[in-house]
Amino acid sequence: MSANHDGANLLEVRGLTKIFGTLTACDHIDLNIAKGEIHALLGENGAGKSTLVKMLFGSLEPNSGEIFWNGQAVRITSPGAAKKLGIGMVFQHFSLFEALTAAENIALSLDDGSPISSIAAKARALSYSYGLPLDPDSLVGDLSVGERQRIEIIRCLLQTPQLIILDEPTSVLTPQEADKLFETLERLRSEGKSILYISHRLEEVKRICDRATVLRHGKVVGHCNPREETAASLARMMVGNEVQAVVRAPVEGIETAQPLLEVRGLTRKPATPFSIPLKNISLNVRAGEVIGIAGVAGNGQGEFFESVSGEVLQQDVASVRIRGKDAGGLTITGRRLLGAAFVPEERLGHGAAPRMKLSENLLLSRHATDGKAFVGTGGMVKSGAIYAASQRIIEAMDVRKSAPDPEAAALSGGNLQKFIVGRELDRRPSVMVVNQPTWGVDAGAAAHIRQALIELSRSGSAVLVISQDLDELFEISDAIAVMHNGELSKPMPIAEATFEKVGLLMGGAEPGHAEHTLETA
Amino acid sequence: MMRLELVKRPQRSALFSALSPFIAFALTIIAGAILFALLGVNPLTAFRIYFIEPISQVWQLHELAIKAAPLILIAVGLSVCYKANIWNIGAEGQFIFGAIFGSAIPVLFPQFEGPLVLPLMLLLGMVGGAAYAAIPAFLKTRFNTNEILTSLMLVYVAQLFLDWLVRGPWRDPQGHGFPQTIQFGDSAVLPELMPDAGRANWGFVFALVAAVLIWILMGRMLKGFEVRVLGSSPRAGRFAGFGLSRMVFFAFLLSGALAGLAGISEVSGAIGQLQPVISPGYGFTAIIVAFLGRLNPLGIIAAGLVLALTYLGGEAVQSALGISDKVARVFQGMLLFFVLGCDTLIHYRIRLIGLALTKQEGAAKLDAAPKLKEAR
């Protein structure tokens, strides 16, 4: 191990660790990047990828561990220091001024006082030589997302980095733009530059990366050659193979059961340049069944959840129906009053207000549905009643906490998630929509939540679970649909579903979408 | 080369959260002592004149109540805004418009007398303040304008509008050309609480009642919960089904109405007519009161009394020591500065990062690295 600092590797990372409070975001990470390779960093959301690259780029300081650059131990204390070493980064979210031209934006980041005209000329030359045509005099505000990314890449290349870190670069690109990008990356590799390519799109990684490091829960779980792996084997490395004892009794005669949640031709334009449009999504969830929606993050799941929950209203009121009633025009409160309950992906700040007590957080989603029980005459909150109800939920879900009624932020992620799920289950909702029910939750709590969702469905409710965790979906779903690029496939009965089939749909490799021909740009 | 960085504390100290206003007050006193010393005045004498003498007699306590009433009324309204993360900086303008609306009755219908006059004036005052506050609320919800700027700019509009009114259409024809309206009739004057003891009027009672009501609203009612949720986590508020636009209007209308009530109470109580200037900056000082009171209506009562004292003390040092009464503004400014400073340090700690130091550490790392390798 000690012999390997002689320059074969451009970057070596040994035992890099970053701790936030009680969470070890990166736990003794080892990583080698050779000269002239494209190295993939794979992992689910929350696996520690972002924390790791922030440490490599100097925006976070590691608690312990070492970084070797060309065999020399270095400390990267700031992004400026990283640039000086020769590390460049292209962020997932761009930092460009829309009112300035491309060249002006580049000049701002170079900060070396060279005149705009010479920067523009250099940028133009560089952009054409790398097949990323760019007009330096165009206003950023007029450019497409793909063109904006080119500015970021050119800006990075102008500093002649040895290592280029790309964070989810294709998440904002069309397939054609992505192809162009891959050509550029291969060109850079042939020039001996190294690239750290962060992604969870397995097919891409297989296509362009020479080696891969897989992270899970902040730890390196493996190094591999992605070309020798299958998408499924890579996915298994990312997700892990923990087995939980969740019991799912088969349901009988589900075909004749009444649909409690109906989504009909749900379409939504992108609200921001980075959000995904929803394209003609249709889905029925019947009483007594759990439907799972699989998909790689950022394929429209968040937008879909907002639309179904009523945080965003629909023009077509019939595009979301709850218990046979049009709900597209109802707010989240209106939909809750129809019997629906929702658990969003983000716990702190979305599903719960961090600085408020659990009892107050109970009121958050139930002030209208349980108005009589929790709110008295004149709008006075019955603090005794909400306290008692929150204690009931804490008991039922086995929420571990340090104080009788702590602030939401004081709970661990898993325990808060149990409370948030329990808060909705306690209502016995007839429709339950959950986005990432066990994201970042430890195995025991996850099994508890999954079992509770199954039991809710078996008692006659319709349960819709959106998750990136395929194992979880296979465990609890009666049928699995896949969301890709804002479209939803037909639900596949669990008996017919395999990891491979679902994985292919997740990657968008095979059409298989019922409405695929209707796709619009 | 040194760099300062604010690092969020994992835990807020409950003790220091409670102590923070007192620490801020102590720091203000220290800075004030330096200020007085630089002005060539013995700080102890100055403090006695500034803080003790203005409240040493009963009638002076009444004056304190007169000054504190508008501050408390406005500040409790602002506390609701600020809890909702809505930044109404224009209470001064809403105060003035409340005064103008309420004064319309005694100025335009001086012959209208009776027990109905005063309640109607107060009501109109609240309507006026709320209506004026509705402008930045509308602009924010409709066009997403920054309410800090619009509400602040509307203060100057209100001040100039009042100035024009009392010099133009509403000027007292028998007033020898002075820019002021007629003196209000008896039924348009807010009665004094204890006429024998001092001038304090019902405005102070309004302030105390408003503070208690807002305290109940914020701590015990669903609406107050809505304010707190939307202010602290807007996304969770949306998930709860609370509307942000509705909240912007609620907070602006409520704080505007209370500022308007303060305005009409001031004019019909302490002043008795409209003049070009009816407020020594109550609307702005109330911002300090709100924060010094930790946005808690009961704390605001105490903070209102403290800030009222800075006004009285400013007047006192001017007459006794010949120091400009602008010193009151300086005290108010220092107080806000120290309050916000203390609050920041409760949430964050300061880390000094010396660049020279990091280089040394880097070198130490380089030295240590080979040893580590050997150890493996």
Automatic annotation (TrEMBL), chain A:
It comes from the Bacteria. CDD domains: ABC_Carb_Monos_I (cd03216), ABC_Carb_Monos_II (cd03215). Keywords: ATP-binding, Cell membrane, Membrane, Nucleotide-binding, Repeat, Sugar transport, Translocase, Transport. GO terms for molecular function: ATP binding; ATP hydrolysis activity. One of its GO terms (cellular component) is plasma membrane. It is found in: Cell membrane. PROSITE patterns: ABC_TRANSPORTER_1, ABC_TRANSPORTER_2. Pfam families: ABC_tran (PF00005). PANTHER family: CARBOHYDRATE TRANSPORT ATP-BINDING PROTEIN MG119-RELATED (PTHR43790), GUANOSINE IMPORT ATP-BINDING PROTEIN NUPO (PTHR43790:SF4). Belongs to the ABC transporter superfamily. This is ABC transporter ATP-binding protein. The lineage of its organism: Bacteria, Pseudomonadati, Pseudomonadota, Alphaproteobacteria, Hyphomicrobiales.
From TrEMBL, chain B:
Coiled coil: none annotated. PANTHER family: ABC TRANSPORTER, PERMEASE PROTEIN, GUANOSINE ABC TRANSPORTER PERMEASE PROTEIN NUPP. It is a multi-pass membrane protein. It is found in: Cell membrane. The lineage of its organism: Bacteria, Pseudomonadati, Pseudomonadota, Alphaproteobacteria, Hyphomicrobiales. It comes from the Bacteria. This is ABC transporter permease. Its main location: membrane. One of its GO terms (molecular function) is transmembrane transporter activity. Keywords: Cell membrane, Membrane, Transmembrane, Transmembrane helix. CDD domains: TM_PBP1_transp_TpRbsC_like (cd06580). One of its GO terms (cellular component) is plasma membrane.
